[in-house]
Specification:
heterodimer, A: 416 residues, Beta-Lactamase, 4 domains, five-stranded antiparallel β-sheet, elongated, B: 122 residues, alpha/beta, Rossmann fold
Chain lengths: 416, 122
């Protein structure tokens, strides 16, 4: 029995030991498992953190790169703009709102004869004094826009434009553009001188014809027959047209030269219209044109005009109306004012201007096809000059025309 | 007594025409063919009136006018400029230098020139 019990205890002991061992093992396993798990989580947490950091790092890298790119873009933009300024054929000089120089490209420096680099940040006035370019001073302070003003400076002839830099209604300084027109100017002058000398020669010849023909007509060279007289009279008229055209040619050259200055005085435009009308009276009668001058209801106010030039405009368009209106037709001139502008109008029942050629009518040397057929004489300069002169007075010139019906030419001059 | 008129004009044809026209009106004509010749004859002949061209060989018309007006013996002689320079600057300059009148040749007939001369010599 005891033996039996002993075995039982042994078995029990073994079972308990085993169970305990198993229990210990189990605990150990879980412990190990727990520790492993803890270690795993800790590691994964740190790993995650690192990954996150990494992620963040690439993010910030991206940001950095982007801003770098932006920076390099703006740098490029800046470079590009500065390259444009550097290579600009015009001189550019910019001053900020405190009248300090903040930009001067090489062309500007060349024109103004500046060698040093240290003009940026300099007071505009001091800078002018140093470079001897005092002529610039008024342009710095004035808010007015200046367009293509001709200035002589040292050996240069400069075309100057100035504009105020306004950004969001704030005055940000001024930009002055200088264009070196020295050689252009010289070339233009040579051309003008050449035309002047040719015109002078032409006029001398035309004058000798005019005087001799007139002296034939006044009997200074003896009696002439009726037929001779008729021919000489016609020659005399032709010659006068030649003189008129030569004067026009001279005016055109001077306009292109920019040397077409207006000498303005206070003028009553109605007087001009009346004197031009009187001048054409003989032709109006001989062509049996029904002519009407609609005067304004009251005397118009006098305008500051170059009388000769405006007279030549009216003469030119009046002459066109007469030339291109067949005998027996109508010509109507009117003059009025709306308080802002004075408007001149001449309407005829002439051959009109073909639609296809209407856009070219103010071009130089242009003559409409139908005009050429009717009247071979004409230089095609009259309307070109008229437009230049009217626009030079701040006015506008235009027309309405229908082929075979007639034309109406208008111009306005501002009442200042 | 016939009045003396000196014409300073290099173009022989134009000069001949004016000479003929004025001579037929009873004037005594003296011709000069360039600026220097004109100045010389102005002093020697003491004309009653001078017709002066501007574009002239040797001394040009403006300089002739300046010298005529500087010299006491010639300064009272009326000078009519007879030129084809029709620019306003030239006309203003001529009048400012003391010319009595400025005639643009191509715009005047010989008769009209005679009238101007007679008017000044009245």
């Amino acid at each position: 029995m005891f033996y039996f019990l002993k075995i039982f205890f042994i078995v029990l002991a073994v079972i308990f030991t085993s169970a305990f061992l198993i229990f210990l093992a189990a605990i150990n396993f879980w412990l190990v498992f727990f520790f492993l798990a803890v270690i795993f989580f800790i590691i994964s947490y740190f790993l995650g953190k690192i990954a996150g950091l990494k992620k963040e790092k690439t993010g910030s890298d991206h940001l950095l790169q982007a801003s770098e790119k932006k920076f390099s873009n703006s740098e490029m933009e800046k470079n590009r703009i500065s390259k444009i300024f550097v290579n600009f054929s015009e001189g550019i000089l910019a001053i900020d709102e405190n009248e300090k120089v903040f930009l001067a490209n090489p062309t500007a420096k060349k024109i103004l004869g500046i060698k040093s680099e240290e003009i940026i940040g300099m007071k505009a006035k001091d800078f002018c004094q140093i470079s001897g370019a005092e002529f610039l001073t008024p342009y710095f302070s004035s808010l007015n826009m200046v367009l293509k003003q001709k200035v002589n400076f040292k050996n240069f002839v400069i075309e100057l434009s100035a504009t105020t830099l306004i950004f969001e209604e704030k005055n940000m300084g001024k930009m002055i553009i200088l264009r070196d027109i020295t050689s252009e100017n010289l070339f233009e002058k040579m051309k003008t001188d050449f035309v002047l000398s040719v015109v002078h020669q032409l006029k001398t010849s035309a004058t000798s014809a005019k005087w001799s023909l007139k002296m034939f007509l006044t009997g200074d060279f003896g009696k002439i027959s009726k037929e001779q007289k008729n021919v000489i009279e016609r020659l005399y008229k032709r010659n006068n047209i030649l003189i008129f055209s030569t004067d026009n040619l001279l005016s055109t050259t001077k306009i292109e030269d920019g040397a077409y200055f207006y000498q303005k005085t206070l003028v009553d435009i109605q007087d001009i219209v009346q004197s031009v009308t009187a001048y054409f009276q003989d032709e109006i009668k001989s062509k049996k044109i029904k002519f009407l001058f609609k005067k304004p209801p009251y005397r118009l106010q006098k305008l500051k005009l170059d009388k000769e030039k405006i007279e030549s405009v009216i003469e030119n368009i009046f002459d066109n109306a007469l030339k291109y209106t067949p005998g027996g037709g109508n010509i109507e001139v009117s003059l009025d004012s709306d308080g802002k502008d004075i408007k001149f109008q001449i309407k005829d029942s002439g051959i009109g201007i073909p639609d296809s050629q209407q856009t070219k009518i103010f071009g130089k040397f242009f003559r409409a096809g139908n005009a050429n057929k009717l009247e071979a004489n004409g230089s095609g300069i009259g309307l070109f000059l008229a437009k230049k002169i009217i626009e030079g007075h701040g006015g506008a010139i235009w027309f309405e025309s229908k082929e075979n019906k007639g034309s109406a030419f208008y111009f306005t001059l501002p009442v200042e | 007594m016939a009045k003396n008129i000196l014409i300073i004009e290099d173009d022989e044809f134009l000069r001949g025409l004016i000479n003929k026209k004025l001579a037929s009106e009873g004037f005594n004509m003296i011709s000069a063919i360039d600026g220097d010749d004109g100045l010389k004859k102005s002093k020697e002949e003491k004309p009653d009136l001078i017709l002066l061209d501007l574009v002239l060989p040797k001394t040009d018309g403006f300089d002739v006018l300046v010298k005529l007006k500087e010299d006491k013996t010639t300064s009272p002689i009326p000078v009519i400029i007879l030129s084809n320079l029709s620019q306003k600057e030239d006309i203003d300059k001529g009048i400012k230098l003391g010319a009595s009148d400025y005639i643009i040749k191509a715009q005047f007939t010989p008769e009209e020139i005679v009238d101007k001369v007679k008017n000044i010599l009245k």
